[in-house]
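pinned: reference chain
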Amino acid sequence: LLQKPVQRKHCRALLWGVLLAVWEAAWGQLRYSVPEEMPKGSFVGDLAKDLGLQLPALQDGGVRIVSEGRTQYFVLHGKTGHLVTAERIDREQLCGSVQQCVLFEVLVHSPLNVFHVEVAIVDVNDNSPTFSKAALDLEIGELIPPGARFPLEMARDADVGSNSLLTYQLTSNPSFTLAMKENPGGKKQPELVLEKALDREKQSSFELVLMAVDGGDPARSGTVQVRINVTDANDNSPVFSKRIYEARVAENLPVGSLVLQVLATDADAGSNGKVSYSFGNIPEDFRVLFAVDSESGELRTASPLNFEEKHKYIFGLEARDGGGLTDHCEVEIDITDENDNAPEITILSLSSPVPEDAPTGTVVAVLKVRDRDSGENGQVSCELSGEAPLSIVASSGGSYKVVTASALDREQASEHRVTVVARDRGRPALWSSTELVLEVSDVNDNAPVFEEAAYSAYVAENNAAGALVLRVQARDADAGANGRVSYWLAGGSAGAAGAAPLVSVEARSGALYAQRSLDYEQCREFAVEVRAQDGGSPARSSTATVRVFVLDRNDNAPRVLWPAAGPGEAPGAASAPAPFEVVPRSAEAGYLVAKVVAVDADAGRNAWLSYELVQATEPALFRVGLHSGEVRTARAVSERDAAKQRLVAVVKDHGQPALSATATLHVVLAESLQEALPELSERAAGADAPAAELQFYLVLALALLSALFLLSVALAVLARLRRAGPPAVLRCLGAQRFSVAGAAFPADFCEGTLPYSYNLCVAAPARAVPEAAWPPPPVPILSAFRLSGRFLPFKRFGIYLIPLTF
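pinned: its structure tokens
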């Protein structure tokens, strides 16, 4: 151990060892020693190494020192793990006469444990012997023979061991010497010994110096002046009846109670034989606790006694006669313990909350129980009161550990309240209690549980997309995120992908919604698997089956299979040719003509069909079965009945509202098929008439479209020619050929009529009819300006046409 230089008084203590670390497995204690008066921060011991602790645990605050009292004398260095002094320690103030007086616990949080550390404060000779008085006055009669002894006041030294009081020294004087006597307490009592007879007439007083020296290195001393007054003859000193007076009193003795009575006698008479009693050199705190009657010698309590503060008092009493002679005795008072202190419970550490999966035997709290009484009065037992999976285990040094006795379950109890009861063995026993509240933190050990293992939902078809189907709910006994449940589709009758187009689930509420409109005729029922998953890590989940039944609605009309007819066909509406049946004219009533066959895609009442004859050529001739759809003759067929009969039957379901379809049946009354053929031919011709009429209208429309197209082309060509100027063919016509008055040709213009001349001029090839062959016109009739306007030629059907104006 290296420390900065300190005063010389510390050297010896430092040499024989500042550090003493002893691990005692039986008691779980560490012992150190450190000199007193060391400066703040002085090294005491490597606590982390001795306890096997890791430095990160120290830096995180996982280790702390718990000591009794308000003053913390030692601290743990967080970076090095060294135990150092928190302030300067004065052993005399802290410990008094007890050498090993500092005891504290080191509390380790992870894992929770407690270690007991005892530190012995090594005494340093920092106190000199002292006397209670600055001077001691003695009166010695001149007739006292040599060899008489006079006890002197003992010095007090607060140090202990070798540093305590060692010897006394008296200044040299031929009349007196110093002797020392060891009292029963092991202390040295100085006595003044008269060496030769005194003569008051020669010397009436003496002044000596008594020095008390301790055994420290260097030694310390204290002095007191001894003043001796030589008196006239008082040849008898007071004498106590006992050299040592002993008493045992209870600590709860009332103030003013008699402890003991001392007695000293003096053979002299008068004032020389009158004895008075007083305290010797005793500490001031003794004078506060006890009082002595100067005349009777009764020693009584002046203040309450407390065994826990001090259980034995040793001090001296002095008897003095009127002549100044004294005698001394020693009083030893033992304080007996009374069970006046209840146990004190201190919670050193409480690990709350504790996870519910903590193993059995986990330390959740460390307690310190202390009873200031002694013996059986200070023997304490602890127990837990209350129903909880906890137990208490005794440790060393009055420490107890509260551990888990069985598995914890937060879902059954989120906290445990137990009362720690500490009871001593006194009569009557005293006890104290404190309450421990242990919270249990949640662990994700519970999967969500659905309210039902399987759900059934009923949804009418043709529902709106997004309609609510069902709401599932799962509960998780855990708390927080571990108990927060989300819902997902896990699969179904066609797996998750097959169920997804039909329904969806809201993650938070568990509500199932239809993704689209359902059709009973396509899907009457389906099942999906809904998974409930909590928010723990790892997450837990469970599944439930939801079976959805689609309820039918009357959304499908009956469909007639025979005779073939369009669904929903109204009576009398035009349709494709209906089948026919031949009924002999000899048929009687009830003759089966045909059977109307119809189906309905709906179910239940929506698919119950009924048949009714709504139209017939001869209404009284036929009837139809209400439920069978059979068409039968209602009476016998007669010759007056028309050969061709047309029947219209309606098929209705029983939905609300009801839907229907019609069927048309043609009946021919004939004895045989050959007889019915003419009727069928007429029926076919009648059926072809509408087709021929439709063909006519189609041809007419095509012709009109063609004409419109040709007209559009002609107009386009004419517009182009007007922009291009007169064509070369018009050069065959002179301007003189035309009359200004009109558009007629002259008589000698050409042979033939006007149309002929027109065709000849224009249609002849250029080689056959050259331009020179045309005789020039006598006078110009048409100007170029007029030819460039509306009189331009145009081409149609491969020839040029010249419009003429008359």
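why pinned: The CA atoms of residues 54 and 123 lie 33 Å apart. Residues 1-27, 566-576, 729-806 have pLDDT under 50 and may be disordered.
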